[in-house]
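User: Teach me something about this protein's shape.
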Amino acid sequence: MTKNIFIENLKAGMQVESIFLVAEKELRQKKGGTGEYLYMILKDKTGSVTTFMWDNFEKIHKSIEPGILIKARGNVQVYQNKLQLVLQNMEIYSEEAEISDFLPSTKENIELLYKKVMEAIDTLKSKELKILLKNIFTNPEYKPLILKAPAAKTYHHACIGGLLEHIVSLIGLCENVLKHYYLERDILISGILLHDIGKIWEFNSSGFFDYTKQGKMLGHIIMGVQLLEKETNKIDGFPKDLKEHLTHLIISHHGELEFGSPKRPKTKEALLLHFLDLIDSQLKGFDEIIEANDSDSAYSSQLGRYIFKT
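Assistant: First, the predicted structure itself:
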């Protein structure tokens, strides 16, 4: 079954039968304690909808978990000026589906983003860094993950190809700053390419942008350092100081201990990487908040403040 109805096209009174991704699921008590009902958030690439199933869910609800696809039939209603979906029937959808129908994708061309990354690698003067980065970004195990990985779970670049979009944006910012300040370009570009590389394992991008077990246990900083260690060990004579500086850029790019960095930036390159990363993630996050709410202002619970369109 091809997905035929998207959430952005739902209208009050519509009868709906389509495929959706389960984002949240919870059994809740009906008012007056007369029984339970099933509460869900269903998603596709165009948005999400609050969903209820009042009856006849007992046999299937234990099989429904966030991250799976369901085929659902119901009608669209309005409650407190918001659309909601009330289901009469649902079943797990086990046929092949196009995952890009259910997860948001970057608006950029992913292959073009990848090409820009490879072009940036070709501009490096260091032979060792060029070998290292080509080994990583062309590796048949890593490349498919790099092409589809998000840069975050929710706040910024949380989409298929989001990590590549974030990296390419940082490269552009970096090139402009280097016109004003002198820094070691090779190490900075390499740090940009590797600072979030652990996110290819931190998030599950095949069904729902949630943390993997590795992501929860280790996090992308640790996994990025592990990858750097593994790949530099394959290169005979890789300079120890270069490896040390790259490691420092990865572990310090969040800037502060309370934000998850084991070390704070101690070189100009590490400091700039941190601030460029912060600029790109925050500005992209602002854009996404305004876009998602389709208004001139929106409140972000994550940031704890209103964001205004200018």
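Now, about its shape. DSSP finds ten helices and nine strands in the chain. The first helix runs from residue 110 to 122. If you'd like, I can walk through any region in more detail.
User: That's plenty for now, thanks!
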